[in-house]
Amino acid sequence: MADAKEACGLFGVFGAPDAVEKTYLGLFALQHRGQESAGMVSTDGKEMTSHRGMGLVFEVFTPEVIQRLKNPSVIGHVRYSTTGSSNLTNAQPMLITCARGKIAVAHNGNLVNGAELRKKFEEKGSIFQSTMDSEVILHLLARPDPKGEEEAYLRCLREIRGAFSLLFLTPGRMIAARDPQGFRPLCLGELDGGYAVASESSAFEISGIRFLRELEPGEMVTIDSDGLKSRIFAEELNPTSCIFEHIYFARPDSTIFGENVHKVRVRLGKALAKEHPARADLVIPVPDSGNAAALGYSMESGIPLQFGFVRSHYVGRTFIQPVQSDRDVKVRIKLNVIRVVVEGKRVVVVDDSIIRGTTSRSRVRLLREAGAREVHLRISCPPHRFPCYYGIDFPDPDELIANKHSLDEMKEILGVDSIGYLGLKKMLECVSGPPDHYCTACWDGNYTVPVPDGLNKFSLEQ
Ligand code: SF4
Question: Strands across the sheet with 187-191, in order?
Fold first, then answer.
């Protein structure tokens, strides 16, 4: 139920007669990663055609638009703004023409030196059309490089810092790259005669693309008529993947950072039950991202799992709106309590996170109104106290409830009988990689890629 804004989703296909259709289906499967805008850039090997629009994938890509796009190579993007405001100019992929020809880029993440690089270009007279980091990347790439095209990409990737999973398309080539920390996921797939790249592996399944592997942190993969070539571009590797992808963002049927998301969430729920047991009659998940953790909590505690909330699937995720008052209204529309399940019961509510606390408070109120006798809130990660500079747009730190209030105060504000968060160490024990291979900055303030002084979400949004 986090009211943090999403990252973005990437999908690309190179060398398939139905690449446009596959990209449409892939973006549809990644819709949870961004619902503000969607876009595709396609090529038949000579011309490049682009379409971007505000809205959901099925709204942006009408049958007429799909008809206009070209096979056999396409990159696509779904977006929720992390830098740059929400408008069509900032929709991706971006397509430019430079001395090297046409290049399109789609970006998931956030550059910590994006503003600094942009300033340098502007001081030399460059003009920017959008407020996005992706445009800075294209400016870097457009500079002539005597060593050739591949070197130009490598040099560009070495100059940018922060979180970036990237997809580039030119008439003859698709290039994918993942930052040296591997903050955001990026997967490689194979189909007859071609290759595909997606933010999450589950996006391949809808169109029968075989999942090959994840891109390594600091890896650049070039796909063209000669096949696939891989290079490690990073001079130094320091993987710290975003563990919040496992807790909240990614789909449960995806494999990211080497393991299945659903399995990790069940483990988180089990660990939560051990660390914060409760005397209760029922465990109920906050759907959908709390489902697997609630299952784990129930398995470990022996308290039966019941579905106490029913979710409307026809309302966008709660943070997909700009103003606070809208959010409260949508929270009420989105989830309703099944009164006969919770009436007179002591319930453990399992959720993935609390950001502002507004959605949690509304849920608890609904449970009380439906007659729940006790409400014990359990959260499958630690309290969020710090902002994210790596591609997730949490609100201002002053709006993070755990940054402003003690647990006792939160109990009062949220109206619960008890509250328990999974500890940082326990959370890290639920994933299979070494603990120092995950980013935990939004919980402990340990930013593995230094954040320039004065950088905050407001300076990023320009
Ligand atoms: S700060 Fe939090 S949300 Fe951002 S990359 Fe790190 S773990 Fe993920």
Answer: 48-54, 37-43, 73-79, 9-14, 194-198, 187-191, 210-214
User: 192-201, pLDDT tens digit by residue?
Assistant: 989 999 999 9
Domain residues of the chain, as ranges?
A: 9-239, 255-448
- Measure 374 CA to ligand 1 centroid, in angstroms: 32
Burial of 339 (0-12, 13-18, 19+ CB in 10 A): middle
| pLDDT band at 319; cut points 50, 70, 90 | very low
For ligand 1, the distance from its centroid to the CA atom of residue 148, given in whole angstroms, is 35
In angstroms, the CA 38 to CA 80 distance is: 9
Average pLDDT over residues 198-227: 97
183 lines ligand 1 (CB under 6 A): yes
DSSP code string of 165-176: EEEEEETTEEEE
Q: Is 431 in the pocket of ligand 1 (CB under 6 A)?
A: no
Residues 380, 261 contacting (CB under 8 angstroms): no
369-406 pLDDT tens trace? 999 999 999 999 999 999 999 988 877 888 899 999 99
Active site residue 156: no
Is residue 397 reached through a cis peptide bond, with omega within 30 degrees of 0 on the bond before it? Answer: no
User: How far is the C-alpha of 19 from the C-alpha of 15, rounded, in Å?
Assistant: 7
User: How far does residue 392's CA lie from ligand 1's centre (Å)?
Assistant: 7
441 close to ligand 1 (CB < 6 Angstrom):
yes
**CATH class for the domain made up of 255-448:** alpha beta
Residue with tokens 């639920």: 430
Look up the pTM and report it.
0.92
Ligand 1 atom, smallest distance to 245 CA: 8
Distance CA 229, CA 223 (A): 6
Domain 9-239, CATH homologous superfamily name and number: Aminohydrolase, N-terminal nucleophile (Ntn) domain (3.60.20.10)
| Ligand 1 neighbourhood includes 244 CB (under 6 angstroms) | yes
